[in-house]
Amino acid sequence: MIQRCRECGKEYDVDEIIYNCECGGLLEIKYDLEKIKNEVSKEQLRERRSGVWRYLEYLPVKDTNKIVSLWEGGTPLYKCDNLAKKLGLKELYIKNEGANPTGSFKDRGMTVGVTRANELGAPVVGCASTGNTSASLAAYSARSGKKCIVLLPGGKVALGKLAQAMFYGAKVVQINGNFDQALVMIKNLALENKLYLLNSVNPFRLEGQKTIGFEICDQLDFEAPSTVILPVGNAGNISAIWKGFKEFKETDLIDSLPKMIGIQAEGAQPIVKAYKAQKDNINPEDNPETIATAIRIGNPVNAVKALEAIYQSNGLAEFVSDEEITAAQKLLAQTEGIFVEPASASSIAGLIKLLDMGAIDKEGKIVCITTGNGLKDPDAAIKASTLPSEIECDMEILKKVIEE
Ligand SMILES: Cc1ncc(COP(=O)(O)O)c(C=O)c1O
Questions:
Q1: pLDDT tens string 204-235
Q2: Cα–ligand 1 centroid distance for 128 (angstroms)
Q3: Letter string b/e over residues 123-156, b meaning 16 or more CB atoms within 10 A of that residue's CB
Q4: pLDDT mean over 43-54
Q5: N or C: which end of the chain has fewer CB within 10 A?
Q6: If you measure from the C-alpha of residue 399 to the centroid of ligand 1, how many angstroms do you get, rounded to a whole number?
Q7: CB 371 near ligand 1, within 6 Å
Q8: 68 lines ligand 1 (CB under 6 A)
Q9: Residue 373 marked ligand-binding
Q10: pLDDT digits (tens, 9 = 90+) for 265-305
C-alpha cells in the first residue's frame, strides 16, 4: 500500500503526511490488488457485518485496534418501483446515505480518515465544510478524543449540520467567505502542522467513501448497476466511488462497470462546463450559489479525478436548477418515503432531466445516490411547503379541513 501521485507517478510512504504531490498533483492510495484477490472471496465478505469495515482488505489501515467507528455504512439500497413506474424505468434504486450515523456519506470517509489520524498520533484534526463534513468530523473526533476545528462559510450552512458540529464539541469558525476560501485557509493551517486535514483532498478519506461502490455491488448480488447518478460538489465522492467499482472489477468481484453521472447545481457547475467542453480540468467559479448548500462549491479540488471518472466510465455531467431540485426532493419523499436534503435530490432531478433529454437507457439498472438526510436542512423543506393553518378544536371544522 502506497500513496501515488496521479499526475507524475511519484510514490510516498503511507505514513508520510502529505496532501498533494510536490508537483501539485492529487494523491491516490494504491494496493496490491492481485494479493487482495487471493485473500477475499464474495462468500467471506458476506459473512462479515455490513458496513465500511466489511471491506477491510481494501482499506488503508495497519492497526485495526486504532479503528474509530460509529458503525457507518451498511445503508439501504431501496428498490423504488413507484418512482420507476412514474418515470418509465425498468429498475431504479436509491442508495440512501442519509442513513449513516451523522446523516451523510461523509461518515464513511471519516471512519477511515480519523482512524488514519489515530495511527499517525495526530491530536488535532480539521476541515473546511459546507456542513456535512464538519458534522461528521466533529462526531468522529469526539469519539476518538481529538480536538476538531471546522471552518464554515458564514450563514450558508444548513441548520441541522451547524447544530451537529457545535454539539459534538468542535471549535466552529464561520468565515466571511465561501467554502473554497475556507478550504484554502484550513489547508494553510495543515501545512503549518497545526492540524491533520480531513477534507477530500486527503486520499485516505476517499478510501472510506469508495465503499459506497462496493456496497452497491454487494447489495445487487455482486453485479454492477448500469448507471450511477450522484451530486457533485468538491468532487471527492464520484472519484472515490469510481475507484471502488474499478477495484471490485480488478479483483474479479464484478465483471462490468457502471456509467458515472455527476449532477451539479446550475449556480455551481464548473465540472459540468468542463465536461461539456470535453476538457480535463475546470475553470473555477468565483461566486457559486444554490439552494443545495452542500454542493455550493466553485473550485472543486478533486475536479480532475472526477472528470477522469466520467470520461473513463463513458458517463456524463449535467446541471439542474434549484426549482428542479426542490421538485425532485418532494417527489422522492412523496412517492417513496425517502426524505433527503436538497443536494441529494439533485441526483433525482438530474435523472428526470436526462430522461427528458433521452440521455439515459430506461432498460438499465439505475442507482441514484442520495447523500444526506432531509432533516439536515429543515429550512429548505419548510420553505418548499405550505405550512398548515391552525384550527379551533371543533370536529366539524376538522372534517371540513381534511376533505379540502
Ligand atoms: C449532502 C451532500 N451531497 C453531495 C456532496 C458533494 O460531495 P463531493 O464534495 O464529494 O462531491 C456533499 C459535500 O459536502 C454533501 O454534503
A1: 999 999 999 999 999 999 999 999 999 999 99
A2: 12
A3: ebbbbbbbbbbbbbbbbbbbbbebebbbbbbeeb
A4: 97
A5: C
A6: 44
A7: yes
A8: no
A9: no
A10: 999 999 999 999 999 999 999 999 999 999 999 999 999 99
Tell me yes or no: is domain 77-101+205-383 CATH 3.40.50.2000: no
274 and 281 Cβ atoms separated by less than 8 Å: yes
First vs last C-alpha separation in the chain = 64
Mean pLDDT for the chain? 97
Mutate to test the pocket of ligand 1, among 75, 102, 105, 243 (most ligand atoms within 8 A of CB): 105
- C-beta of 231 in contact with ligand 1 (< 6 A): yes
Query: What is the grid cell recorded at 25?
Result: 498533483
CA of 38 to the centre of ligand 1 (A): 34
CA atoms within 13 A of residue 285's CA, in its CB half-sphere:
23
Decide if 205 contacts 182 (C-beta within 8 A).
no
Q: Is 113 annotated as a binding residue?
A: no
**Cell matching residue 279:** 476538457
| Cα-to-centroid distance, 297 and ligand 1 (Å) | 10
Is this complex's ipTM strictly greater than 0.95? yes
Identify the DSSP state of 70.
S
Alpha-carbon separation of residue 108 from 53, 115, 139, 381 (angstroms): 9, 11, 12, 26
CA of 236 to the centre of ligand 1 (A): 8
Angle between helices 132-144 and 106-120 (to 10 degrees): 40
pLDDT reading at 13 higher than 90: yes
Spatial separation of the C-alpha atoms in residues 278 and 200, rounded to whole Å: 24
Domains of the chain: which residue ranges?
Answer: 77-101+205-383
The pLDDT confidence band at residue 404, using thresholds 50, 70 and 90, is confident
Residue found under cell 495497519: 62
Three cell numbers, residue 108:
464513511
**Is the model's pTM score more than 0.90?**
yes
Is the C-alpha dihedral spanning 308, 12, 125, 178 positive or negative?
negative
The response to whether residue 232 sits with its C-beta less than 6 Å from ligand 1 reads yes
CA torsion sign for 207, 209, 211, 214 is negative
Cite the beta strand spans of 129-240 per DSSP E: 147-153, 171-175, 196-197, 227-231
Q: Where are the beta strands (DSSP E) in 293-382?
A: 316-320, 365-370
